[in-house]
Design a protein that fits this description.
Blueprint (H helix, E strand, L loop, with lengths): L2 E2 L3 H5 L21 E6 L17 H5 L9 E6 L4 E5 L5 H11 L6 E2 L1 E3 L5 H4 L15 E5 L1 H9 L3 H6 L3 E5 L6 E2 L4 E7 L10 E7 L3 E5 L12 H6 L3 E5 L21 H7 L5 H4 L2 E4 L13 H8 L3 E2 L5 E3 L6
Parallel strand pairs: 4-6, 6-7, 7-8, 12-13, 13-14, 14-15
Antiparallel strand pairs: 1-5, 2-3, 2-16, 3-4, 9-10, 10-11, 11-12
Length: about 325
């Protein structure tokens, strides 16, 4: 199902329909499905509200250093479809980024897949309501508890009643077939599940398999073995919220048990280089030193043979990775 936002396409009808390029000069694929990294920061964004510390001050004064909340966009140029993975507080900017990169699909939201009910991952749905876009029946894919949360809590239940969104059921391990080329499969992960369960997603095409886990508790709390999962995918976007213990002064970080980037590096230290190259850390807290250009933390990630996800990064799901 392809849902078009009323009135939103008209503005773009007068614009170029030629795909763009990223800041690094990477071209948007002409006909094959592709991913766009639409944000890389933790739920509260970067810079974070009311933060006047050294980590955020440069980003307040230089808008070019701002980073949106973690989100992926999946685009299929041939069908004119595009899907979002999470609806973040930066929803308007992220749609605009997609529109700018590829005006051919501007104004289209074919569906939104939600990982869980923490503020950075679903609150962007508010922009679909009558106070904003006034969308019509946008498919929103949600696990059972997430579905119940949206149906029974305001203001989200209004989106359901007014049919701004159409809730679609997800079940762990059961693929959702988007078209003949693309499917999405949720995978349960342990996390603070106050309001909903938490999932990551496999994004699968005929040639590529991508793992997306922006939020998870420590790897040893999961019933899956991360090194084995990496053998089965081409790329993995993994929770990199914090770089190392002690990053937040005067806070017991066991209360927010994300896997530190350093822990993931250590866990995967024995993997061959080609496996480590698959890893892109995402969902970075504003305190995470990897957000700072030239930091030793960034150099540590690079020396480990891994990567940091980059806002605007494009992944062609039809070609072989180099």
């Amino acid at each position: 199902m392809v849902a078009l936002i009323s009135g939103y396409l008209l503005f773009f009808a007068c614009r170029s329909t030629t795909p763009g390029t990223t800041a690094s000069g990477v071209a948007v694929p002409d006909s094959t499905p592709y991913l766009v990294v639409l944000g890389i920061s933790q739920d509260a964004g970067f810079p974070q509200a009311n933060c006047q510390k050294e980590c955020c001050v440069p980003a307040w004064t230089d808008p070019g250093r701002r980073r949106f909340v973690s989100c992926l966009g999946l685009v299929d140029p041939k069908s004119g479809s595009r899907w979002l993975f999470d609806a973040t507080p930066d929803f308007p900017d992220q749609l605009h980024l997609l529109d700018t990169l590829d005006p051919r699909t501007a104004g289209t939201i074919s569906g939104i897949f939600l990982t869980h009910a923490h503020i950075g991952h679903y609150t962007g749905l508010m922009h679909l309501g009558r106070e904003a876009m006034g969308a019509q029946q946008i498919p929103v894919y949600a696990m059972p508890r997430m579905d119940t949360f949206l149906r029974t809590n305001g203001p989200w239940d209004q989106l359901v009643r007014l049919e701004n969104i159409q809730l679609e059921s997800l079940n762990a391990g059961v693929p959702v077939v988007l078209n003949e080329k693309i499917q999405v499969r949720p995978i349960l992960v342990p996390h603070r599940d106050e309001y909903s369960e938490t999932v990551g997603f496999y994004l699968i095409t005929s040639q590529k398999k991508i793992l997306y886990i922006p939020d998870i508790d420590k790897w040893n709390r999961w019933d899956q073995h991360l090194p084995a999962l990496l053998e089965d995918v081409d790329l993995a976007f993994l929770d990199g919220t914090f770089f190392a213990n002690g990053e937040i002064p005067n806070r017991d970080m066991s209360e927010i048990p994300h896997p530190f980037i350093m822990e993931t590096i250590d866990l995967l230290s024995d993997l061959p280089a080609e496996s480590k190259q698959k890893i892109y850390f995402i969902h970075l807290n504003h305190t995470n030193p990897t957000l700072q250009p030239g930091s030793s933390a960034r150099q540590t990630v690079q020396a480990a043979g891994m990567h940091l996800a980059t806002q605007g990064q494009i992944i062609n799901l039809g070609d072989s990775f180099q």
